[in-house]
Amino acid sequence: MIRRLFYISLGAFGAVWVMRKLQSLHPNHLARRAVRGASGVLDQARDFAAEALDGAARRETELRTRFGLDSVENTYTYDVKDGR
User: Fold this and answer.
1) 3-state secondary structure the chain
2) d(CA 25, CA 51)
3) How far apart are CA 71 and CA 65, in angstroms?
4) Relative to the CA of 1, which of 16, 37, 41, 74 has its CA 20 to 30 Å away?
5) How far is residue 18's CA from residue 23's CA, in Å, rounded to a whole number?
6) Residue 58: closest CA among 80, 30, 5, 50
7) pLDDT in tens, 6-47
8) Residue 64 burial class via C-beta count within 10 angstroms: exposed 0-12, middle 13-18, buried 19 and up
9) d(CA 55, CA 58)
């Protein structure tokens, strides 16, 4: 009796496992996973670009300060003759 219950529960577990594996291979499921993965990559690319631009702006400000150049906001002063 206990042996039968064991084999029935093992069979039920195996059937559920197989059904889940087959559902994960369904085309709609694969497409959803691909879209989710692509959106994740796009978010990572956006984050990387934002960090790179922020770092470049900080570095530019640092170099302009070190060399005494105009600030990033005020790149040209109209009262200084520069040979134009």
Assistant:
1) CHHHHHHHHHHHHHHHHHHHHHHHCCHHHHHHHHHHHHHHHHHHHHHHHHHHHHHHHHHHHHHHHHHCCCCCCCCCCCCCCCCC
2) 37
3) 7
4) 16
5) 9
6) 50
7) 999 999 999 999 998 888 778 777 778 888 888 888 889 999
8) middle
9) 5
CA distance linking residue 1 with residue 42, whole number of Å:
56
Phi, psi of 73 (to 5 degrees): -75, -40
The position carrying tokens 């069979």 is 11
The tokens describing 25, both together, are 């291979």
Report residue 14 as tokens. 């195996």
Global confidence as pTM: 0.45
Tokens of 67: 């060399």
- Residue 6: count of CB within 10 angstroms of its CB: 10
